Amino acid sequence: GTLFGILGSLAIGFTYVSFFGWSYAFFVIVVAGIAGNLFDSLLGALFERKGSLSNDAVNFLNTASAASIALLLMKV
User: Fold this and answer.
1) Greatest pairwise CA separation for the chain in angstroms
2) Are 48 and 55 in contact (CB under 8 A)?
3) What is the rounded radius of gyration, in angstroms, for the C-alpha atoms of the chain?
4) Do the Cβ atoms of 38 and 4 come closer than 8 Å?
5) 76, pLDDT greater than 80
6) In terms of Cα–Cα distance, which of 70, 74, 75, 4 is closest to 37?
7) Residue 2: pLDDT above 90?
8) What is the end-to-end Cα distance of the chain in Å, rounded?
9) 6-13 — which CB contacts under 8 Å span 24+ positions?
10) Is 66 buried (19+), middle (13-18) or exposed (0-12) by CB count in 10 A?
11) Could you tell me which residues come within 8 angstroms of residue 23 by beta carbon, excluding any fewer than 6 positions away?
12) What is the C-alpha to C-alpha distance for residues 43 and 45, in angstroms, rounded to an integer?
């Protein structure tokens, strides 16, 4: 799953590049996407399996974390 998450982040980053050209945003997209994917795995293993969080909650939290990371990286 991790490898496909990385490949997915790269695919989205390259899609951005095909429309807007190379920029720092490519790095932000890839890093935030990979971080969100890893956070999803962590939340799933620690909380969803035990029934503490639903799949919808895990999806919301990993998306929110990726968006937060992207915002932080864009401030740099």
Assistant:
1) 44
2) yes
3) 14
4) no
5) no
6) 4
7) no
8) 29
9) 6/34, 6/37, 8/33, 8/37, 9/33, 9/34, 9/37
10) buried
11) none
12) 5
Both structure tokens of 8: 């997915």
Mean pLDDT, range 54-70, rounded to an integer? 96
What would the pLDDT profile of 4-57 be if each residue is shown by its tens digit?
A: 999 999 999 999 999 999 999 999 999 999 999 999 999 999 999 999 999 999
- Token couple for 48: 């969803």
Residue carrying structure tokens 């401030």: 75
Residue type, 32: A
The pLDDT of residue 1: 82
At 1, the amino acid letter reads: G
Q: Which residue has the tokens 């095909």?
A: 18
